[in-house]
Amino acid sequence: METQSAALIGMGLAAVGMAGSGIGIGYIFGKMIEAVARQPEAEPILSKYAWIGFALVEAIALYALVLAFIIMGQA
Amino acid sequence: MQTMQPLHAFTVHTQLPLDLFGVDISLTNTAIALLLTSICSTVILILLLQRQSILPGRAQLLGEMYFEFIRNMTLKNIHEHGEHYVPIMFTLFTLIVGSNLMGLLPGSFAPTTQIVVTGTLAVAVFLYTVYLRVRLHGWGFFHAFAPHGIPFYLMPLMVPVEILSFLARPVSLAVRLFANMTAGHTVLGVIAFFGLLAPWYVQWVPLSLSVALLGVEIFIAAIQAYIFCVLSCVYIDDAIHPHS
After folding, report:
1. What are the b/e assignments for B201-210, b being 16+ CB within 10 Å?
2. pTM passes above 0.80
3. Which terminal CB of chain A, N or C, has fewer other CB atoms within 10 Å?
């Protein structure tokens, strides 16, 4: 029973890793809006890179999810 | 109240047990979904390009736009002999985007939610880049691990880091695609479960959210396939011109 509850706590702790990804996504889109406001004609090029960056940063958050799954499998 | 099992959808069932000289080649739901994906994408692409003319119709235009998109992506990321790698990138992109979208059909199964599938694709790309690098550069293969212009006393630090980052490539490729797909389906499942459990006067909140999430999932399915292909292109380009 103790290992199970420890696993649940661990899964919750793994979710903390998503905070960094949240900061990253906010940073990407903040900079994107800034750049488009400075140079609106560059939007198609910028949005492509912004979406690629978004997906890469989002994947980091999902590594935390994978960690949570691994902990769940161990319990 | 039934218990929620968000990961229940990802279990692999054997549909048709097959045995080839002691090797288990049973037809599982993953294999069936992969076969369906390849058949469907082939049939759709053939149908799109069936009647070819100088003045393209809507279907031909769609097929050509799809091909042009992948061709431009490949040529932009592989600077030398990019044309050689257009077919493999087209196949990779079509397979991945098809199997991602396959999972969004109700009652269906996405092969990319199995790390076996994404891992096989990523390791295949990785081994291909290793082969390319050995064939093009021979023993210069190991030069990639010792970048130019760094002082030699930093070598004991840099070489292990370079080797580790080289070996981490297939892992990150595989886990990125697998985790994105699995997480997307899990979120959809959880939201749908909330929708079923909620009292009728708030049921519209999770159910309308699940519609919006399905839209996001379609977008993510395409963008993850795109990222897989872009990174494969970058790795192949890196194998042709290591640290140029």
Report:
1. eeeeebeebb
2. yes
3. N
